[in-house]
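Notebook B, p. 112. Complex prediction, attempt 2.
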Amino acid sequence: MTLYNNEDRFISIEGIARRYPKAGGGETTIFDDLWFSMNRGEFSCIIGHSGCGKTTVLNILAGLELPDDGVAVVDGHAIEGPSLDRAVIFQSHALLPWRTVLGNVSFAISSKWPQWSADKVRDQAMRFIEKVGLKGSELKKPAELSGGMKQRVGIARALSIEPKILLMDEPFSALDALTRGTLQDEVRRICLETGQTAFMITHDVDEAIYLADRIVLMTNGPGAMVAEVVENPLPRHRGRIDLHKQPDYYALRNHLIDFLVTRSKSFKDEIPTDYSKRHPPIVRPTAALAPKADLSAA
Amino acid sequence: MSSNLTLRASVLSFVIFALFIAAWHIATRQTGSVAAMDPEYAKLMGLTATTGKSAMPGPFDVAAKIWEHLKNPFYDRGPNDKGLGIQLAFSIGRVMLGYCIAVCVAIPTGFVIGMSPLMSKALNPFIQVMKPISPLAWMPLALYTIKDSSISAIFVIFICSLWPMLINTAFGVAAVRKEWLNVARTLEVRPLRKAFTVILPAAAPTILTGMRISIGIAWLVIVAAEMLVGGTGIGYFVWNEWNNLSIVNVIISILVIGLVGMLLDQALARVARLVTYPD
């Protein structure tokens, strides 16, 4: 089932390429002519093996890197550098260790709204510190917090500037499974509540299934491609507990794992004849419609 | 446990101090009449020859003299007889002036070098050549160009304090973590605000280490510089008392130089603790 979905392209990646000079001369192409788009209010994940350029895509969206070719467009404007409209949650949380929790969040807020009074900045910071469940710890320094709490501060800092897009680079990969689960719940709740557009890099298939509305599958680098964009067939209001009881859950999961295990390597050699880099196929694996995924899992 | 350790260490320190004083006292005590000699000759030679008294003063002589200095540290009886407090104030004043000018030059310059790989590469050969020069080697040049001995001493302090702060600032600024800079970039923090709210706090512990090294060197150098330029200061005092053959005053100066050096270092260590962040 392949369809092209062009409605309300909020973020549009249009033919971007990134190349690095090789040590012995020449260039390595991480990816080129990469196209995909995201809609407003959607949660997108990008999945692929290490070295396929996922982080590069995120850095380009963040404006920390510029593409060598092509352009990334957000809300009708080409990205030319970092912007307060796009907040990043870093994998390493990247908190400033000499500032308190409140200080870290306030730093972001006063960067976005320099004209705000100290009280207003503080109120806004406290609102988001409460939202991520850190009320009472606002005067602690990052060194006094656990890994999960530090990442909560990172989330509060990113959300506090009310960005148009939330960009996340494997934000939970350094956390233990229980903490990761709780934080996934929180991020999902906050994004649903506020209609936040979000883009996340992950290695974790279950994380992608739980959080994402769309999952972009990237083949292995160098020369990585968007193999397809998977639409999540599970209901938008899904719970962690009954996730695996959803009828389409295994079809989706098998499809993703099949991609990571085999197709991410082999896709390049057996590109479908109707494949177009500009319009990567949109796939919606369901129990009824994805016999291929079921077969490969058997 | 740790308070117990502190107590035992203090007791041990006191014992070592007491043993040192005792050994000093025994080594310099009067040993009584050495030999019968011509009274005229004995008068000429003084106590050293007649009673076996060492020319080196004992701990009680020094203690008595310290008490005398403490009672009246700020007297001024002409250019060659000033209180210890006045001499110290001159030295500390010179060190502070030269050091503060060095801070004002080294930290901004270090920032530029740390931020710009181009400046870092361009200035590196100069720094590498200038750094190992003994500060006193600058003295003749300073005296010739500045023509004022007191300002020359300040210049020498400036030049010797400069390098450790410059190098540490450049290193600290260049080593600020990429992720913190990326946070500043994604938040569109303006360059000046970034310098003060991200780079300066991140590099502060390294900068303070450089400042501590510098104040130590400055205090070492001021004594030697004042011996050369003369007039005032604790360095001049030491040399003047040596010319007066007042070993008691020389010993007291050594002690005071050590104490002041320690206080300067401790003061900066305290500041360093304030800006250090746990990671």
